[in-house]
Design a protein that fits this description.
Blueprint: H1 2-11, H2 19-24, E1 28-33, H3 38-54, E2 62-67, H4 74-90, E3 97-102, E4 127-132, H5 133-142, H6 149-159, H7 162-168
Parallel strand pairs: 1-2
Antiparallel strand pairs: 2-4, 3-4
């Protein structure tokens, strides 16, 4: 499910200009959890962090963790990701890895709930993306408009028709 979402939405809409090459090179580790509790999800995160930390970047560039069965609100999941970030800091990995949160109810604090710019981080299920900080820095240096990615995404998402929104984000319309 998440692999399809990355391919069709993230890459298909070019929401992340770095995703396509890593995806096509099979350097993304996709890990799905069916756990339903915070404790189980915390262990899942720690296990995945150990895997990416111990893997060479030429084998696993990035890791996408999906929490397929965990019914958790965006705010609670955001708090969970805050805990995960504090773990990175406590063990001295915050300079090596960074986390990006995705959730079906995602919204940026400074935007209205239904602003289309929020779609950039809306996923079918809760997701944590573990990125290698060095690779992010290098990728941003390679593209001239790195600082404009969010503005480009906002323009592209605002240009989508309602039909396209329903096509790319059907999980937002399910009851």
């Amino acid at each position: 499910m998440i692999k399809t979402w990355v391919n069709e939405v993230v890459i298909g809409l070019n929401l992340c200009p770095f995703a396509k090459s890593v995806f096509e090179s099979k350097l993304i580790r996709f890990s799905e959890s069916a756990l339903l509790t915070e404790k189980g999800s915390a262990d899942f995160f720690l296990d995945e962090l150990a895997i990416i930390q111990n893997a060479d970047a030429s084998i696993i560039s990035t890791s996408i963790l999906s929490f397929n069965k965990w019914a958790i609100s965006f705010y609670d999941f955001n708090d969970f990701v805050g805990w995960a970030e504090s773990v990175l800091e406590e063990v001295g990995l915050d300079e090596h890895f960074q986390l990006v949160v995705f959730h079906p109810q995602f919204h940026f604090e400074d935007l209205e709930l239904h602003d289309r710019a929020n779609l950039v981080n809306k996923s079918p299920v809760p997701v944590i993306h573990i990125l290698r900080s060095l690779e992010v820095e290098l990728a941003l240096k390679e593209i001239k408009s790195g600082e404009n990615i969010s503005f480009i995404n906002q323009d592209n998402l605002n240009a989508l028709t309602e039909g396209e929104i329903q096509k790319y984000f059907p999980y937002l319309f399910e009851s």
